[in-house]
Amino acid sequence: MKIRNRRARQTHLSKKWWAIPLFAALFAAPADAAGTISNALSAREAGRGGTNLGFGDNGVILHDNAAGMLGLVGDGCCDSSYLDIGGVALFTDLSYSDDDNPTTDAADNPTGLGYFMMARRWNEDIVLGFGAFAPAGFASDYDLQGPATLPGNHTYKSFGALVRILPGISVRMTERWTVGATLGTAVSHVEIEGPYYLNSGPLRGTPTILDIQATGAALSWSCGSQYALTDRTTIGVNYQSKNEFEADGKAAVDITPLGRSYYDVEFGLTWAQSVGIGIMHQVDSCQRIGLDFEWEDWSSAYDNANLVFTNPTNPVFESVAGPKIDEVFPLQWKNALIVSAGYERDLDDHRTVRLGYRYQDNPIPAATTSTYLQTTLQHHFSAGYGFKHSGWEIDTAYQFAFAPDVHTGTSTYPGGDFSNATVSTQTHMVFVSAMRRF
């Protein structure tokens, strides 16, 4: 049996034309992540290990902790507006091996992601902001030998994207305390292509070739706070809501004796909620350190992914499998704790250097590790450099991340695919950001 998308991506995305510029400009697979959440977007926060919850010096603070936006603009008549744009080049180094495949590297497809943010002071106690951010995703692309029941060479390919479009506000409650919030829209796009064994329903255990695309939108919101414990030390906390999607797509099912039937497909997927607490300490006039702790709720978000196939066009398929196929793809992820530490030093009024390290739990159990969600990174090392030029603040950073090899043992998935496998993951990321106050 084969499941393939109808008339490829163009048919589906023609109904979601508004999503195309978002994904083209903002996202292409940030696999450098805890689970699927990228640990940094701006070069400034990336250079110091992703620490940002207690800071207020870059536009991604709207996404990470909107309370920090008051630090972006001046208190007087000047510098009341702010603009921040940035991009990231991602280079992955992924490999996979099992009983049917010697060590095989994934396709080397450098990709990019980005963001933009703007803010303006409403009055001396309120700053308004707006931005678009690509904080999460996954991707891989392999050519591998399939298991015995699906012999031959097959493509194993996945792509997942999350973009959040966020208006936000930051309010000064007292001289030391600020609060902030965002309320906007999240857009998600998912593609999966490759061998797959159905896990549910009357066709359970049937080997298939899956090729599907689905896109959807959901509500996204956050709330946060910052408090100046002293003139040198600020603590920040933030809650990010989960994003629950029912993404819509098209698929076709091919079974050799029965022919082909087209289906509408609904893909249920949740991006995890998170809570974080961080601290920024000004060591002296030119040195700062940061420490962030974050918790991500993957156990409820990625317990299962749900696919629903409806409206078959071939009545033979409906007589065999019924009018609807409810498919459950088990993930069984665990919650993740993330610890980030960063340091930055001003060399003079125009130049700054940064160093950082980030540790994050791998939320993926060995038994559900596969090429489709190869986001197992744990250790991240970073360095950054910033300078000022013609009124702009330019920042660059480099980050290297890796994970210990994962040995799957007996896979949860039927058919023998991904059992007794070894998965290796590492990435390189290069960040560039530019910000200006005016």
Automatic annotation (TrEMBL):
Gene3D superfamilies noted in UniProt: Outer membrane protein transport protein (OMPP1/FadL/TodX)
Endpoints of the signal sequence: 1-33
PANTHER family linked to this entry: OUTER MEMBRANE PROTEIN NMB0088-RELATED
Pfam families: Toluene_X
InterPro entries found in the cross-reference section: OMPP1/FadL/TodX
Protein name: Outer membrane protein transport protein (OMPP1/FadL/TodX)
Membrane topology: Multi-pass membrane protein
Subcellular location, record wording: Cell outer membrane
Family membership: Belongs to the OmpP1/FadL family.
Keywords: Cell outer membrane, Membrane, Signal, Transmembrane, Transmembrane beta strand
Source species, domain of life: Bacteria
